[in-house]
Design brief:
single chain, mainly beta
């Protein structure tokens, strides 16, 4: 019995803090895939304190525009499907005191004739002393 093997080569590039890119802009990933497709991930930091803007997409019809915000004990995100405008997803986590956290996430579907909340979850944690 003969076994065959194959390689799936792909080429990836990452540029950050480069002299050829504007301040705060990062090319997190540019990837050429074996099937001829491409993927791109970029980010922009420093537009405002604690704010980071992101884009992730490919030539297969996917594209997400994201926002990440961090300040103190708050961390929040939002992602919009900018190709189909079919979904918005958000999340947030907040530290309450030194030992508690509370957070949640939600997705809102905008595809079809009806727009509605498609999923959500809430959570919390508490820790005290050594185990």
């Amino acid at each position: 019995e003969r076994k065959s093997s194959s390689l799936s080569p792909k080429v990836s590039v990452k540029l950050a803090s480069s002299t050829i890119l504007p301040k705060g802009f990062s090319l997190d990933k540019f990837q050429m895939k074996p099937d001829g497709g491409n993927a791109l991930e970029t980010s922009l930091s420093g537009a405002a304190p604690g704010l980071k803007l992101t884009f992730k997409g490919n030539d297969g019809g996917a594209g997400d525009l994201g926002v990440e915000y961090k300040k103190g004990t708050l961390a929040a995100t939002a992602v919009l499907d900018v190709v189909d405008l079919s979904k918005v997803s958000t999340s947030a986590c907040f530290g309450v005191g030194a030992s508690s956290n509370i957070g949640g996430c939600a997705s809102y579907s905008m595809s079809g004739k009806e727009c509605a909340l498609s999923s959500y979850s809430l959570g919390g944690s508490y820790s005290s002393g050594a185990l």
